[in-house]
């Protein structure tokens, strides 16, 4: 039984004007191992079409092709890919080597799909290159070879997976006489080694060289002439098992292609890195600024004490009195250790040696005040003690304001009596300290309470200072207080709001910066689309070698992935570098790292870069995988 038999092969093409063009009209023939068959005939007679059908590249035909009793018609696309990998070796007129791979790597593409170990693959590739006389050119690229040498590489590649059938389409078409003779000699050796060589040719020299000539005319087999006895009928003992190219090989191939197009890829990497860099910088600055605000605010105020007032819809909550009931309610909240009465004084007049200064905002002392805020002296915890902010004190003595310490001043505070009539409370106070805050004066609750009592007024607090035991309990306490429809006052209460605005601003800026990521995604799409166009032939070659669609797809996806990973890392590195220099510069001014590249931002940046590049690769990779192998091979 013959190795290859074709029965009743018919094939038509549709022309652009909608006509049907019959190219092969019922071809039947069989071929055996050891044969060197030349197919000759007029140009356009259907020779290449027949070869594509035998090679399993074209499945749109009627009739059948049987190889080792297996019908090609019954095969799925994956099975046909495997059939090409294991049974077919291609030699083309225009060599069809992959330009960005070395001679050795071109031969290895086929071998990488065999089950041989990497060492065996290299040994076999080197052995085949020695066989075709090119062992010393293994490391060079195809454009550094002569036409004859290129065809020898193509022959070595065709033999790599040890296929039974070698299909040579005009193998000597681009060669001079000497090279033609050398290649024919090699083909002779191949057929003599027990393989079937089928060569499509216009050359009489080639046709006369083989063991048999088939003459195609007008889509029909008109002559089948045996020229010589078959070289050998040596049966193959073992066949090389194959598998798909796989992720590792496609990834390495993508890397090699990128190396050969370094300039373009560096530009895309740089563009993408700028995008990632800008996004990370915005997020890191947002985090740094909000951290700095927390640090400053909780550094100047006691973070475990919050000031609470009544919530009022319209009007000033600072003027609504807090009752004993409020005090009890707040004291009973979990983790509350202390509740202190407090009084807001919208304006306090302070008189010293006949000179009167009015503060814009004052309140009674409570635990939210930190001693470190004092420039000198101590907090006004005792009776009839007052501390002044530095700016207020300077109004009395610009250059030596500290001289006011321990001096007596008179204060006047506006309040209301039991009939809600306005009264002015006044008393002499001793200045016991100065604070960094601005335009304020602070006295204790007891002091103001006594001033009121002196005028027979029972002063009700206008806020309560609630202290909790631990910093971690502050946030839950604040939300519980809010749920009870109280209001949180003091700067600390605004941290969340400011935080929200800073976060929002940094997200908006990061969003704007992300536009450059979009641009880099478009760049990747454009470059990959162009790449699909310029690599159409390469895709055809790979498909002819038995590479599956999925591997073609992963070839392009790998390129995008490499770009995504490299530009994300570069962007991150640049952002980290900037943060180091900004923070070291900021250290001398604010003693705080104002740009914080959190690990989450690094992960986010990496994930964004990868996702964007994968999305960008999707359409071009699909386009490449969907290319018809026959059309891709004939692409000029
Ligand atoms: N994809 C296609 N669509 C339409 N017609 C096609 C297509 N491919 C080939 N043909 C036509 O089929 C016919 C046979 O083409 P084929 O390439 O098989 O001929 P050939 O014998 O190999 O020619 P040559 O010796 O010049 O290489 C030609 O007329 C060609 O124009």
UniProtKB/TrEMBL annotation:
Keywords associated with the record: Amino-acid transport, ATP-binding, Cell inner membrane, Cell membrane, Membrane, Nucleotide-binding, Transmembrane, Transmembrane helix, Transport
Superkingdom of this protein's organism: Bacteria
GO cellular component, one term: plasma membrane
GO biological process, one term: amino acid transport
Annotated TM spans: 262-285, 507-532, 552-574, 594-619
Bilayer topology: Multi-pass membrane protein
Subcellular compartments: Cell inner membrane
Protein family membership: Belongs to the ABC transporter superfamily. Macrolide exporter (TC 3.A.1.122) family.
MF GO annotations: ATP binding; ATP hydrolysis activity; transmembrane transporter activity
SMART domains: AAA
ABC transporter domain mapped to chain residues: 4-243
Name of this protein: Phosphonate-transporting ATPase
């Amino acid at each position: 039984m013959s190795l290859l038999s074709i029965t009743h092969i018919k094939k038509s093409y549709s022309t652009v004007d909608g006509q049907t063009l019959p190219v092969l009209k019922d071809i039947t023939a069989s071929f055996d191992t050891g044969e060197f068959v030349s197919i000759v005939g007029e140009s356009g007679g259907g020779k290449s079409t027949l070869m594509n059908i035998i090679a399993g590249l074209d499945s749109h035909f009627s009739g059948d092709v049987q190889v080792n009793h297996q019908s090609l018609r019954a095969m799925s696309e994956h099975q046909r890919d495997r059939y090409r990998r294991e049974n077919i070796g291609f030699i083309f007129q225009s060599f069809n080597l992959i330009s960005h791979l070395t001679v050795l790597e071109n031969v290895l593409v086929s071998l990488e799909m065999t089950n041989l170990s990497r060492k065996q693959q290299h040994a076999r590739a080197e052995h085949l290159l020695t066989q075709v006389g090119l062992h010393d050119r293994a490391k060079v690229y195809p454009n550094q070879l002569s036409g004859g040498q290129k065809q020898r590489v193509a022959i070595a590649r065709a033999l790599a997976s040890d296929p039974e059938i070698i299909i040579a389409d005009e193998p000597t078409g681009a060669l001079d006489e000497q090279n033609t003779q050398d290649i024919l000699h090699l083909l002779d050796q191949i057929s003599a080694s027990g393989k079937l060589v089928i060569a499509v040719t216009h050359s009489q020299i080639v046709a006369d060289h083989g063991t048999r000539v088939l003459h195609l005319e007008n889509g029909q087999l008109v002559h089948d002439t045996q020229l010589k006895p078959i070289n050998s009928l040596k049966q193959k003992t073992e066949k090389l098992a194959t598998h798909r190219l796989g992720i590792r090989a496609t990834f390495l191939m993508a890397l090699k292609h990128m190396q050969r197009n370094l300039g373009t890829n560096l530009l895309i990497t740089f563009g993408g890195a700028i995008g990632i860099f800008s996004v990370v910088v915005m997020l890191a600055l947002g985090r740094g600024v909000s951290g700095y605000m927390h640090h400053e605010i909780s550094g100047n105020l006691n973070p475990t004490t919050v000031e609470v007032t009544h919530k009022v819809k319209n009007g000033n909550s600072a003027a609504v009195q807090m009752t004993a009931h409020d005090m009890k309610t707040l004291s009973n909240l979990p983790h509350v250790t202390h509740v202190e009465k407090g009084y807001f004084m919208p304006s306090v007049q302070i008189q010293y040696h006949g000179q009167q200064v009015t503060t814009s905002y004052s309140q009674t002392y409570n635990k939210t005040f930190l001693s470190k805020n004092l420039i000198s002296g101590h907090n006004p915890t005792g009776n009839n003690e007052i501390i002044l902010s530095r700016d207020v004190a300077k109004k009395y003595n610009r250059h030596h304001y500290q001289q006011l310490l321990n001096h007596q001043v008179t204060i006047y505070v506006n309040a209301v009596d039991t009939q809600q009539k306005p009264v002015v409370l006044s008393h002499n106070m001793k200045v016991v300290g100065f604070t960094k805050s601005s335009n304020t004066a602070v006295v204790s609750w007891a002091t103001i309470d006594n001033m009121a009592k002196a005028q027979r007024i029972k002063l009700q607090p206008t806020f309560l200072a609630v202290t909790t035991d631990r910093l971690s309990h502050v946030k839950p306490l604040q939300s519980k207080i809010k749920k009870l429809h109280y209001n949180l006052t003091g700067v600390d209460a605004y941290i969340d709001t400011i935080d929200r605005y800073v976060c929002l601003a940094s997200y908006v800026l990061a969003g704007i910066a992300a536009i450059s990521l979009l641009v880099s995604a478009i760049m990747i799409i454009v470059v990959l689309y162009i790449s699909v166009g310029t690599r159409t032939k390469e895709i055809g070659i790979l498909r002819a070698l038995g590479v599956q669609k999925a591997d073609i797809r992963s070839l392009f996806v790998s390129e995008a992935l490499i770009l995504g990973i490299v530009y994300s890392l570069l962007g991150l590195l640049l952002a980290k570098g900037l943060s180091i220099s900004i923070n070291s510069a900021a250290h001398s001014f604010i003693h705080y790292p104002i740009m914080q590249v959190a690990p989450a931002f690094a992960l986010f940046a990496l994930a964004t870069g990868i996702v964007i590049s994968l999305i960008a690769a999707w359409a071009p990779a699909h386009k490449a995988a969907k290319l018809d192998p026959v059309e891709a091979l004939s692409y000029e």
